[in-house]
Structures are given as structure tokens and as C-alpha cells.
Design a protein that fits this description.
By secondary structure, the chain is α/β, with parallel strands linked by helices. The protein has two domains: 128 residues, Response regulator (Rossmann fold); 141 residues, 3-Layer(aba) Sandwich (Aminopeptidase). It is 36% helix and 28% strand. It contains nine helices and eleven strands. The two termini are 37 Å apart.
Length: 275
């Protein structure tokens, strides 16, 4: 099995968050994290909390120092900063296997800085491994979202419907790869409640963590806006989506009979409530 190693200085803040995030998305590799100077320390409390907020548990992590044997056996080494990459290059590690995320050390800062660090790590990993950037809606996105709607749904939203929703407190986030929108999700906000309108990903990019990344972006927005819960409907036959939502902390709270048409089908109501 190919090995991916995330590297930072002490292996207590940045690299454990990176390890935890990629493990939640990818099972085809052996994924570990290491430090250049520290050994045997627990993960920092703010890193642990920041990851818990997106449903990832890294509490059992203990820092370990990178060995030459591990570096030599790795398929890819992802460094948090250029200085880490420079150190490894000077130590004789093959430069071709080294990548840099460019994330500053949050050590000693408050939780908000760790959350910013977490988000930078997520964005960097998504671009590195999927070539995907998760961002908020911008002008002209409605054209491509409407095209995606036609691909994914029997009753697609039009460009006008998307813009009307945007004018009525619906926030959209998109997944972009090589200048192409490959997925999107919408969140309508009513007071302190969030209602997910649609989640769509192109057929060729399904099963690659894009929907999960979009949902996690919505979770961050929900947290920033202090929403009490976010909820959605999903076809009862869409087991892949139902399983994903369960993994992300949603629970079934009801059912809408014949909610969907073309074909007619019941919808499960699934909700993720703020703890």
C-alpha cells in the first residue's frame, strides 16, 4: 500500500489535522503524520477541537519523529511549510516526492486561528489530491449550476430559480476543478435554521469526496451563522447519499410521502443539530 506522510515541526497541530482529514476521505493509502523535532506529545487541544467541529476525531494521536526509513518508503511527503521541505531535501529525501501546503504554524494561538489553519489544510489537500477548490458562489456561476442541475435531477432548477433563491437567503457553494464547476450545494437560512436545498456532483466525480467537501463547507457557514440545525430531504433509495449524511452526523427525523416525482418516491428528512 502506498504511504502518504504529512510533516510539520512538532506533529501536534498541523500535520495531525491533515492526517485526520485525508483519512476521512481516502482509504486507498497508508496515511500518517510525523514531526521533525518532537516525539511522544499529545495532539494540541485546539487542533482536536477544530477537527471535532467537522466530525473528525484525532484525540488519540501522539506525536512521532519522522525517520529516514519512513521518508524513503513514502510515496508522497506533504510538508506544512517550505522550511520543512527544505530540511528534508538537505537530509537527502527525494525532492520529487515532496509537496508543500504552505500553512502557517498556529501553535500558541486561540481556537479561531486553529480553525483557519484547519480550513487552509482542507483546501490545500482537496486541491492536491482531487484538484478541487471549494468556494462560495460568484457571478455567472448560475449558468454552470443550472447545467449541473439538468445532469443530476429530473426537475432541474433554472438559472432564474437559482438567482431567485440567492436573493431569498440561500447561500451556494461550488466545487471547481480546472476551471469547471463539478459540484454545488445550497443552504437556505431562515432565522437560526438551515435548509439544504440541493447537493449535486457530476457523475464522473462522484465517490471522490466532493459531496463531503461541499457539506463540510456548509457546516462551517452554519457554525459561523450560529444555526441551531441544518436539515435536508433525500430520496429513500439514494443509499449512497443517506450513508454519507449519517457519517456526517445527520439523523433521520421523519419522512415525506411521495415527496419526489419523476419517479415518485418518499423522502427521508435528515437533520444535524448543533451540540
Amino acid at each position: 500500500m502506498r504511504k502518504i506522510i504529512f510533516v510539520c515541526t512538532g506533529n501536534t497541530c498541523r500535520s495531525p489535522m491533515a492526517e485526520g482529514y485525508l483519512k476521512s476521505k481516502q482509504t486507498d493509502f497508508e496515511i500518517i503524520s510525523r514531526g521533525l523535532t518532537a516525539d511522544g506529545l499529545p495532539v494540541s487541544s485546539n487542533s482536536k477541537i477544530a477537527m471535532e467541529k467537522i466530525g473528525i476525531d484525532i484525540s488519540s494521536h501522539t506525536s512521532k519523529q519522522l525517520t529516514k526509513e519512513e521518508a524513503d518508503s513514502a510515496h508522497l511527503i506533504v510538508c506544512m511549510s517550505p522550511s520543512h521541505a527544505q530540511f528534508l531535501t538537505f537530509a537527502g529525501v527525494d525532492e520529487e516526492k515532496i509537496r508543500v501546503l504552505g500553512v502557517d504554524d498556529p501553535y500558541g494561538c486561540d481556537l479561531s486561528v486553529y480553525e483557519e489553519c484547519r480550513d487552509q489544510i482542507i483546501k490545500g489537500i482537496d486541491k492536491l489530491f482531487n484538484g478541487v477548490d471549494i468556494r462560495e458562489f460568484k457571478e455567472k456561476d448560475e449558468i454552470y449550476i443550472a447545467m449541473l442541475e439538468k445532469e443530476c435531477f429530473s426537475e432541474p432548477w433554472s438559472e432564474k430559480a437559482i438567482l431567485d433563491a440567492k436573493e431569498n437567503n440561500t447561500l451556494f457553494v461550488v466545487a471547481q476543478a480546472e476551471e469547471k464547476i463539478i459540484g454545488y450545494a445550497g443552504l437556505q437560512i431562515v432565522l437560526d435554521e438551515g435548509y439544504i436545498t440541493n447537493v449535486a456532483v457530476t457523475k464522473e466525480h462522484r465517490g471522490k469526496g466532493v459531496a463531503k467537501a461541499l457539506m463540510e463547507k456548509l457546516f462551517k457557514i452554519a457554525e459561523e451563522k450560529d444555526l441551531a440545525f441544518i436539515t435536508l430531504e433525500v430520496r429513500e433509495s439514494n443509499l449512497a447519499a443517506i450513508n454519507l449524511y449519517k457519517k456526517l452526523g445527520f439523523e433521520k427525523e421523519g419522512e415525506r410521502k411521495n415527496f419526489y416525482v419523476n419517479p415518485k418516491e418518499n423522502g427521508h428528512i435528515m437533520t444535524k443539530r448543533r451540540k
